[in-house]
Design goal:
The protein has 392 residues and is an alpha/beta fold. The chain has two domains: 36-165 and 255-294, Bacterial extracellular solute-binding protein, family 7 (D-Maltodextrin-Binding Protein, domain 2, 3-Layer(aba) Sandwich); 171-251 and 299-359, Bacterial extracellular solute-binding protein, family 7 (D-Maltodextrin-Binding Protein, domain 2), CATH 3.40.190.170. It has helices spanning 3-30, 33-39, 55-70, 91-97, 130-139, 142-153, 193-200, 210-218, 230-236, 238-241, 263-267, 271-305, 316-336, 338-361, 365-382, and strands at 42-48, 75-80, 102-106, 157-165, 171-173, 187-189, 204-206, 224-225, 244-247, 255-262, 310-313. Helix 7 links the parallel strand 6 and strand 7 (204-206). The chain is globular.
């Protein structure tokens, strides 16, 4: 081979090497595991909107672990508690700007940016429960309407709705709430459209993050407050400042959590990793339901037995009043905000069909509960004790 041929072959070999290197770099963008491992894992710093001790922060950690495990460590999400980087109510802005790579919270915390967002968690939802609200979000057009709201407020995030919440208590008070007029002049904590609802009942409302509620009640800055569930309320210390909790309410009867990614950070991920995240969201959503059933029921018992909290059902007259006030709030906001009107109408249409189906098909647990644990238990207690056999 001549010297010229050798030089030509060397040039071809070098070009082939550079081409292969470029292909390998492209493969990294597409997300081949071997290349990702060679470059090192993708790390994300997140923050939740919850205090460290709240079960909601635990849900955030659970989701991160699922993603970290399912990607085999190629994506590593670290979740910090509320306030570690930004205040709880500033999470959306921080994720959008890239101050944080992602976060875990709720839609109604962004209520101030567009009141339509509160329809994902602080309304009667036309009788839907949280699972039905999530069904509307995925299959009834809610996801597309939601994106219109985020486009309107100009945030750059990838958002997921997940984790259905159970109906939330009316709240914690100094004494039982027996009529709607009991709210007149009451200093009360809530969020979202519920602010307007309780203002309509005469309360002086203050929206506070979860970790600030109990200290405010302890200092007398609040006469009453609602947060979410038996576990969160117990862990946050509600029983230390109140011994009265009113159960059942329409103000937040259907709500879910939100998982946020910075859009640029999310878009840069390989397609395979995005698919893992999509499925991890739904897996974590189911687990929130299962874990909450176990934990909330245990803490409900503990609140009664150990913390000596008295629970009362909210009177139907108050529940009816909530619905009437929400009708007024909905009409007012729909007239001022076309997106609010469009979303409310979409939810109403979905609810008319699905709530009727559930109401007609799903048997009430009351009869079965009374059969196994109520009437029989009462009868057993009332029955005279059997005399012990005489000793011979």
């Amino acid at each position: 081979m001549t010297k010229k041929e050798l030089e030509t072959n060397k040039g071809v070999s070098r070009r082939n090497f550079l081409t292969a290197a470029a292909v390998t770099a492209g493969a990294a963008t597409l997300g081949f595991p071997s290349v990702l491992k060679a470059q090192g894992p993708v790390s994300m710093r997140w923050q939740s909107t919850w205090p460290t001790k709240d079960i909601f922060h635990e849900y955030a950690l659970d989701f991160a672990k699922k993603v970290n495990d399912m990607t085999g460590g190629d994506l590593k999400i670290e979740v910090l508690p509320a306030g570690a980087v930004v205040p709880a109510f500033d999470l959306l802005n921080a994720v959008s700007k890239g101050t944080l790579d992602g976060g875990h919270g709720v839609f109604v915390y962004h209520y101030g940016k567009n009141n339509a967002l509160s329809l994902w968690g602080s309304s009667p939802a036309y009788g839907m429960d949280a699972d039905m609200l999530l069904s509307w979000h995925k299959y009834g057009g809610g996801k597309e309407l939601f994106q219109k709201v985020y486009d309107a407020i100009g945030v750059s995030v990838k958002s997921y709705a997940y984790g259905p919440m159970w109906t939330q208590p009316l709240g914690w008070f100094k004494k039982p709430i027996t009529k709607a007029d009991d709210f007149k002049g009451l200093k009360f904590r809530t969020v979202g459209i519920s602010i307007d609802l309780f203002k309509g009942m005469g309360a002086a409302v203050n929206a506070l993050p979860g970790g600030e509620i109990v200290p405010a009640m302890d200092r007398g800055l609040l006469d009453g407050a609602e947060f979410n569930n038996a576990s969160s309320d117990r862990l946050l210390g509600f029983a230390d400042v109140s011994k009265v909790c009113m159960l059942q309410s329409y103000h937040q009867s259907a709500e879910s959590f939100e998982i946020l990614f910075n859009k640029a950070k999310f878009d840069a991920l390989p397609a395979k990793m995005k698919a893992i995240i999509d499925n991890a969201v739904e897996a974590a959503s189911a687990d929130v339901t299962w874990k909450s059933i176990d934990r909330y029921s245990k803490d409900y018992v503990e609140l009664q037995t150990k913390d000596k909290v008295r629970f009362y059902k909210t009177p139907d007259a108050i529940l009816q009043k909530q619905l009437e006030i929400f009708d007024t709030v909905e009409k007012d906001y729909s007239a001022k905000n076309p997106l609010f009107k469009e979303i409310a109408e979409s939810q109403r249409k979905f609810a008319e069909r699905t709530v009727k189906w559930k109401r007609d098909y799903v048997v009430s647990p009351t009869l079965a509960y009374n059969h196994y644990f109520g009437r029989k238990a009462a009868a057993a207690k009332a029955a005279p004790a059997k005399a012990e056999p005489k000793k011979k």
